[in-house]
Amino acid sequence: xxxxxKLSQEQTQNIEHDALxxxxxxxxxxxxxxxxxxxxxxxxxxxxxxxAERLKESMANAGPPPRRSWWHRLLGH
Amino acid sequence: MTDPAEGAELMERPAAAxxxxxxxxxxxxxxxxxYYLALRFLGDSQRAEDATHDVFLKAFRKLDQFRGESSAxxxxxxxxxxxxxxxxxxxxxxxxxxxxxxxxxxxxAAKTDSPLRVLETKELGQRIQQTLDxxxxxxxxxxxxxxxxxxxxxxIGVLVGQSTDAVRGKLHRARKTFAALFEQSA
Lengths: 77, 186
Fold this sequence. Notes:
The complex is a heterodimer. By secondary structure, chain A is mainly alpha-helical. In chain A, 70% of the residues lie in helices and 4% in strands. Chain B has helices spanning 4-11, 21-42, 45-61, 72-91, 100-108, 124-133, 137-146, 153-160, 164-184; one strand at 116-118. Classes of the chains: A mainly alpha, B mainly alpha. Strand 1 of chain A pairs antiparallel with strand 1 (116-118) of chain B.
């Protein structure tokens, strides 16, 4: 009876382990190539929100944006 | 001693505005691509933030030189690549295993056609960074550029100063090497 009970415990552990593995696999993802993986990574990566403010201040301190020369404007560049 | 009135003025200072719609548009449209390139190329979020800041500030200062012959994206990438490469050279922060790429590729070429399986997304960024850090600068840059779907092989070739065929060949090897190293990092 004791033996039977031990087996049952091992079986239970195996079932739990399998279930855990399955959960992980379901939660996981597969990527066919490095490109796909990096695209996924890029999509998950957020730009620090304060960067825009920092940049605006730096640009304000840098003065007005340079004007295009008249021949660039004339040529539509 | 700071004048209290001055302090209050500083605290209530309104948010700065973009100096022009053009630069605002450039930032809005390309910030993520430039930040991601800097992040994974430099391997450090603070350095990536500083680099992205500097890239857009340089773009702002050189806006009059942008002739529209290339897309704004490739123009910004060119500034970003130069900037990041200069940073790497000056700070000596390279984590390159000399001549390791080919050896790794040869060793595990047969195994790397299987998909890249990710079980835990929590540490995915770290694994990707560790893998990229072990690649040569050239392979790392090529993989980061090709991951941007807006760039063609031709545009990547122009950015890295190589022919389209050379880019294709090197990318093939870069992907294999990345896959082998990524597998090892699991």
